[in-house]
Amino acid sequence: METRRLVWLMALVFPIILLVQYFELPHGYVLSNLLSFGKSEVSSIPTRGASNDTESMGMNKIMAPEKARENGYKPPESNYSSATASSNSSLDNLWLRNVFPATSNINEEKNPNIITPRVSLPLPPLDSPNNITSPQYISVNRSTPFASPMGKDAVLKNGLIGRNISNPATTIKTPTKKRRFKGPPAVVIPISTMNDMLIQSRVSYKSTKPHWPSKVDQELFSAKAQIENTPMMEKDPHVYVDLYRNFSAFIRYIFINFISYLFKLVTKFLVIYRSYALMEQTLKIYIYAEGEKPIFHQSELSGIYASEGWFMKQLEENTHFVTKNPIKAHLFYLPFSSRLLEETLYVPNSHSHKNLVQYLSSYLHNITTKYRFWNRTGGADHFLVACHDWAPSETSRIMRNCIRSLCNADVKGGGFQFTKDVSLPETYIHSPQNLLKDLGGEPPSKRQILAFFAGNMHGYLRPILLNQWENKDPDLKIFGKLRDVKGQMTYIEYMKSSKYCISAKGYEVYSPRVMEAIFYECVPVIISDNYVPPFFETLNWESFAVFVLEKDIPDLKKILLSIPEERYLEMQQRVKQVQKHFLWHSRPEKYDIFHMILHSIWDTRVSQMRPE
Predict the structure, then answer these.
(1) pTM of the model
(2) Least enclosed by CB within 10 Å: which of 162, 187, 366, 371?
(3) Which of 492, 474, 491 has its CA nearest to residue 557?
(4) What one-character DSSP code corresponds to residue 48?
(5) Quick one: pLDDT band at residue 602, thresholds 50, 70, 90?
(6) Sheet containing 449-453: which strands, arranged edge to edge?
(7) Closest CA to 159 of 168, 149, 172, 169
């Protein structure tokens, strides 16, 4: 009898506890709070993985103003003339200028149905690409996307402003992060699978439909129509056709005709009108003048991040592609340096990119308030070029609809979207005054070293490579950091004298060694699972490079020796042929790296165009 009463008592007490917990903890889940040791507000912010999955399915949305108000966002005051009147170029005022836009005098195409700019609110900082797990958010209250009127010093000291200008009580709390060693990827996508993914993505990806029509859309549709109705060209006596997915995959734009989806996607590449020629004839780009140095409109022209700097410099100096009239623009360039963003605003040892993301969000609010062009497509016709490790994660949400040309092109992580982003070559510029210094290498007959690698022990993979092969085989010259010692071969001499040059990933999937190998006419051996090589949509990388899975490092020599000499000679010749696509010149030349970067962005935008 007593046992029965006890059971009934417990049955009554339990629902009462649940009821109390429900009203006491409205932000969390009842059972999780019951079973936890303390109370914590559960954030609705998705993890990186969830975010990527949503984006890859084409479910990217722009937060509407009504939704923004529900999340605590308060629109700015309408009069910012006092802020914009200042001509001081210091960083303190730089922040304010990005926040408080002046009114535009440009005669723009207008849609009376769209009044308020639809720019995403700032989101909590993304996890660092280097050795950091997905962040666990303790508390998130979304504040205004504007920067602090307190200036840069306050931003740096506090990690970023935590106060809404109109509501000092509103704060963004710093997320806690668990650091861990970044190991091998859980899922590996071989290069052959990426080829299939490319074909499928060109048909399946849907960019934001323009909210109102524009003449530039018709021009892009016209270009695509010309491309789709041109017969195939298979041979050219002056070009190694196999360098490209098909010869005119580079010289002409690729249209993909899907035949069936039975067991395997069957594709047929139709070689059509010259995509490159259409780009030269048609493409116009508008560069936003907003944003101040050093982060905007300033180029870093040396080092491993120089690709973004040289592209910015040469595009801003270009008179053929650049237009001063945004109505005529097919694409809009966001002219910031991801490297200088990090150098200027990152707080050392803070392990937080919050202020970097917030700064970009403020800039984005500026241009979407001043212009209507972002709103027309949700940013789908905007693009950025960025080479820093953190660029994919820092821009993956606030600029998620843009076409992003990124060095850190990891098909399975870090924010890169295979369906619309493109891979940017990481070129190590030693001398901006002499961009082609030491170009070339020994002929194949004088390349006596089978394979070469040297580099710092960044990441998990390089120690594995050295443990397996350093000083283990005379045919494989595998080193750690190689120092210049008188009487011994230098790094460049090894590159010029080796048949194969190994590019093993460091902290991230990309490395300048891929471009160095091509520069010195050495066949690249890429050991970096899930890396999307540059200009992948155009070049047939397997025709001039070797891809080795990370798990196959113990079989590295066997793999290289299995390549017939005739095949090696063919690949080396193709490296020399493709080299022109990866060279910077003080003034851009036809088919060089500047035009190839531009073509990859143009190619992506044209492929996104869909009839209504």
Answers:
(1) 0.70
(2) 187
(3) 474
(4) H
(5) very high
(6) 476-478, 449-453, 498-504, 523-527, 546-547
(7) 172
